[in-house]
Amino acid sequence: MSAPPVPGAERITEEYKHLRAFESDFDRAQGQVRQAASVWILTGFAAFAYVLSVQNLPNGLPPAVLGVLVSWASTFGVMILWIIDQLVYQKLLHSVFVHGLYLEWRDRSLPRIRTKAYCDNLNVSFKLSLFYVVSAVAFLLVEFFFAVSAWSQGISAGLSCLITVLLIIHASAIVGMIYVSRQDKNLLRAHGAPYPAAFQNYLRNQTFRGDLQAALAEPLSPSPTQPST
Question: Is residue 224, in this structure, part of any structural domain at all?
């Protein structure tokens, strides 16, 4: 069950409202990062169009080698943006979100908005990371296509070794992104240490599910301006 109402409810309500401002800032920042990622991805595919259209490059470099380099650089940019989005801003957002859960647990008069969101989406981070992972996989497939094309043209041993190394790094980066994204995004383990043991058990035992059902089943109180019938 939730903790009983505590003194200082007005202060808690104000604190609860301020949390939304922090969440909005982080949401806005993540939106800007994803917008930049979208532009970067489209730019990468536009560069592929140039690689496919060009015939000769300086020093006799095969266009396919340029395609490999563009694919690798495109994935490198996607991974940097993924780190900023998921490993920085998402963690900051989770920190604020957990404090909102704590206030909802502490004061029953607060709306259970975050509790409902947490109940419905225990681990949404992997789904968000798919935006970056799928793009990186697409770049890897294109890179492999250009690599096979370059190898078939009889490139030098040095270039062949370079392409192989880039492919291995590219594939390893994708595996790392998937591994980190699929890790259990346990809010309690990551951000719950400073909170009381009762609240930690509330999340650990998923008591919030039954508590939320009970809160939603409660009849609405009549408005102070409208007499009850």
Answer: no
pLDDT of residue 222 exceeding 70 = no
pTM of the model: 0.81
Does residue 207 form part of some domain? yes
For the chain, state the CA radius of gyration. 25
Residue 208 located in a structural domain: yes
Q: Is residue 86's pLDDT more than 80?
A: yes
β strands within the chain, DSSP E: none
8 Å CB contact between 105 and 187:
no
Alpha carbon distances (Å) from 81 to 42, 69, 84, 86: 14, 19, 5, 8
The mean pLDDT value for 115-134 works out to 84
Cα separations in angstroms, 176 against 10, 69, 184: 45, 20, 15
164-195 pLDDT tens trace: 999 999 999 999 999 988 876 677 788 888 99
Tokens representing 126 are 């992997």
Helices 63-82/125-152 angle, 10° precision: 170
pLDDT at 20 over 60: yes
Position 2 in a domain: no
State how many domains the chain has: 1
| Whether the predicted pLDDT of 1 surpasses 60 | no
| Contact (Cβ atoms closer than 8 angstroms) between residue 36 and residue 80 | no
Domain that holds residue 25: 9-217
End-to-end Cα separation, the chain, in angstroms: 31
